[in-house]
Design brief:
10 strands, 37% helix, 12 helices, 8-stranded mixed β-sheet, alpha/beta, two-stranded antiparallel ribbon
């Protein structure tokens, strides 16, 4: 397990917070005008202007992707090593698919790790694909990163054949995860590699006892999320229950498992403002999504954590941290596929 320790500046540019933006410890929070609200709020949690209000899901996805940029770069270089010596990898990998690309942070990391390859960012969100195109242009990669909108697993293969496929947290949102893996595998060239980042450890960001509400809030939030995920999966089109043994699922898709690695993502306390903003957004979405799965005490506690003017809020409290782990499973297509 390899640590990827954040410095706090990782997401600063994209989230509108430069060095020194963190609230001064020992002082109360300053009030500042929120975007287009006509009232005073805590620190602005938007990227710029009304972006969060217009596309809250896309905004949250970009915040998280920015925080995970260090892990994505490390994972991309690990994948490079799975293709063998540097010269062999450079020659072998010419086309890469980033499925569920979001704002293109992983696409950028893959383009850096494989300098001779063209990366196709695939996502169902036109807004996030637009961000991926903008990010590629900002980093001089517009000629090496292109985008493609896709909604269904059977569309993945239409971007093939490819040498490497990266997919992060996509299969969990599809009813038949095994069929999705088969579709992804069908896009590989012989010798190509499929890398699947699914689950790992849920983000931790609060101590067990935070001084408000009942101790153990984070564990109860995690349990409520798991119940919600299970309920939502049961309603997905073609929902099929499988044992989430990813090496076994990859083997059932006709691939040979090539290695698994877990990456630790850590931002220790005290947090810089970009990470706090992400936690604020995460808690806001949790409160909205979990609904009546939380009891009254826990709901009131989360509301206190969201209070931008309270020193007990996540935007200001000195004990907030960010710790999570992502596991990447890989498998290789070792023989040509039979026709038909």
């Amino acid at each position: 397990m390899t640590p990827t320790q954040g410095t706090g500046g990782l997401a600063g540019d994209a989230l509108g917070a430069g060095p020194g933006s963190e609230p001064e410890r020992g002082r109360g929070p300053a009030r500042e005008a929120g975007p287009d609200t006509g009232r005073d709020t805590g620190p602005d949690t938007g990227i710029h202007g009304g972006h969060e209000a217009e596309h809250p899901a896309e905004h949250a996805a970009e915040q998280e992707a920015e925080l995970h940029a260090g892990f994505l770069a490390e994972a991309a270089h690990w994948l490079h090593g799975l293709f063998g010596p540097a010269d062999r990898a450079t020659a072998a990998v010419r086309r890469i698919l980033d499925v569920g690309s979001g704002p293109g942070v992983a696409s950028h990391a893959l383009a850096d790790a494989f300098p001779e390859a063209h990366v196709v960012a695939v996502d169902r969100s036109a807004a996030l694909l637009a961000r991926a195109e903008a990010r590629a242009a900002e980093h001089g990669l517009a000629g090496r990163i292109s985008t493609r909108r896709a909604d269904r697993p059977e569309e993945f293969a239409r971007s093939g054949p490819v040498d490497l496929i990266w997919t992060g947290n996509v299969c969990r949102h599809l009813g038949d995860q095994q069929a999705a893996l088969r579709s992804l595998a069908s896009a590989l060239r012989p010798g190509g590699l499929l890398a699947v980042a699914e689950r790992g450890l849920p983000p931790r960001f609060l101590p067990r006892d935070i001084g408000i509400g009942r101790p153990g809030l984070q564990a109860r939030l995690d349990a409520a999320v798991e119940e919600q995920v299970t309920a939502r999966r049961s309603r997905l089109p073609g929902a099929t229950s499988v044992v989430e043994d990813w090496p076994c699922l990859l083997a059932s898709a006709g691939l040979v498992p090539a290695g698994t690695r877990t990456f630790l993502i850590e931002f220790p306390a005290p947090l810089d403002l970009p990470v706090r903003r992400h936690l604020h957004t995460r808690l806001h979405r949790l409160l909205a999504d979990l609904g009546d799965r939380l009891d009254l005490v826990d709901r009131l506690t989360v509301e206190q954590l969201l209070d931008g003017d309270a020193c007990t809020g996540v935007l200001w409290r000195p004990d907030a941290f960010y710790l999570t782990a992502v596991t990447v499973h890989t498998a290789r297509l070792c023989r040509p596929r039979a026709a038909g």
